[in-house]
Amino acid sequence: MSTVVYDSNPQSRNAVSTLLSAAGQKNVMVTGNSARFLHLLKEQAGGLQMIVLSSRPGEETAVRLTQAIGEMAALAAVPVLYLTDSHSVASPRRDGLSKNVMRVDQFLVRPFGLEKLKKALDAAHVARARSRDVIVMFTEAPDAVLHETLFEFDSEFHWREVVFVSNALELASKIKILGWRVGAVFIDPNCKSKSLRNAVGALRRSPIGAQTLFVLLGNTSIETFLFRDLCELFLAKLSKESFWSPADWFQVLQITSTRLLNNEPSRRATVQARNLIRIHEMKLAKVVVAEALEKDPNRFELLELMGRIEENSKRLDRAVVHYQKAIAINPCAPYSYLRLLATLQGPLEREQILEKSESFCPQHPQLQDKMRQSREAQL
Questions:
Q1: How crowded is residue 54: how many other Cβ atoms within 10 Å of its Cβ?
Q2: Which pairs count as long-range contacts for 221-226, CB under 8 Å and 24+ apart, including other chains?
Q3: 65 and 10 within one domain
Q4: Cβ proximity of 365 and 338 under 8 Å
Q5: What is the pTM for the complete model shown?
Q6: How much of the chain, in percent, has pLDDT values that exceed 90?
Q7: How far apart are CA 12 and CA 59, in angstroms?
Q8: Confidence tier at 278 by pLDDT (50, 70, 90)
Q9: Beta bridge partners of 7
Q10: 64 assigned to some structural domain
Q11: Which residue in 85, 292, 298, 303 could disulfide with 326, CB within 3.0 to 4.6 Å?
């Protein structure tokens, strides 16, 4: 991942680059030449983390560059942060160009420090995530309730449209047409086995990128393993009826939206916490994870990390709660099963965990070994 910066002021380039690196941006490349800037954007398009423009009062070049960014389809999913000296940004008049065509996700007015910059970077990611406003649902039984719930939900979150598809060719076609606007792909695991396998192939070949969420829906383990390394979320309906109720869909939309909008800061917090745990800085790791969970409470990776931290501190009851929450959100995550088997003492509880892991992680070698040992002990 890389960050490309345009800054025509030689005196501020080093400071901007240093601050961006301190804020977690990777491979920061700064230039004051507009042609070089556009070349870097095209060269790095497949791995851009952020685009930053820094301008002085009255400068028109940076504003024009925002228009060029907006015309590059390959950059549609990349956040743009604009650093400026005042709230009034230059707007060229000769050709009628105005701020309405500026492709900017977040403005940050100088002076600013590291904390303000971090908040602006996160806000830019959230703003760009909100532009991914379409759900594609792969199912053989379209649900009208989802349509209704979607628009009731819209005032709080950002979804604008749901598109139903029933075969892999249609799935690939819709994704190609909608492109970066696809924020989530919902998959109904009760489709025919062959259809599901074709859908997996279509999704693996799709160009929509790592920021799109693949969400497996249902209350059974049918074909779950097929999607385990593709889907980030595995959500089950709340109601016992065969249909999905408005409450079910509301929960699905809420969890999916929260995860999508918090992807960048939550992933950054996850990496930071893992690094702190690696050097045994458990107290600092707990602070990082707790702050991230406040914003993104349904991120199963963060719940697993909090369980690990609590287990390390010998607070096993708290660790069990976090591992159980992680499994409830993503029943195909093997780490929580393994830790529950290590911390739970009751034979009935352990057997229940093993049975669930057998359904959702049927080919995980360590869990298979635990299951074999359990069966041998019963003989």
A1: 24
A2: 221/331, 221/359, 221/360, 222/189, 222/190, 223/189, 223/193, 223/196, 224/189, 224/331, 224/332, 224/359, 224/360, 225/332, 225/360, 225/361, 225/362, 225/363, 226/196, 226/197, 226/200
A3: yes
A4: no
A5: 0.72
A6: 26
A7: 15
A8: very high
A9: 54
A10: yes
A11: 303
In order, the DSSP letters of 169-210 are HHHHHHHHHHGGGEEEEEE-TTS-HHHHHHHHHHHHT-SS-T
296 and 360 in a single domain? The answer is yes
Q: Which two tokens stand for residue 297?
A: 């409470």
Cα dihedral angle (314, 316, 319, 323), rounded to 10 degrees? 140
- Is residue 343 pLDDT above 80, yes or no? yes
Residue 114: inside a domain: yes
Q: Residue 347 sits in which domain range?
A: 263-378
CATH number assigned to the domain comprising residue 180: 3.40.50.2300
Residues facing 292 on adjacent strands: none
Domain count, the chain: 3
Top mean pLDDT of 46-60, 206-220, 274-288, 349-363 is at: 274-288
Identify the bridge partners of residue 108 per DSSP, sorted by sequence position: 83
Closest residue by Cα to residue 31 from 68, 76, 71, 61: 61
Alpha helices by DSSP H, the chain: 10-22, 34-44, 61-70, 114-130, 144-153, 168-178, 193-204, 246-261, 263-278, 282-295, 300-312, 316-329, 334-343, 347-360, 365-378
Do 190 and 294 sit in the same domain of this protein?
Answer: no
Pairwise pLDDT comparison (99 vs 21), residue with the higher score: 21
78-137 pLDDT per residue, tens: 899 999 886 555 444 444 444 446 788 899 988 888 999 999 998 898 888 888 889 999
136 with 125, same domain: the answer is no
Query: Is the predicted pLDDT of residue 245 greater than 90, yes or no?
Result: no
pLDDT digits (tens, 9 = 90+) for 159-186: 888 999 999 999 999 988 888 888 899 9
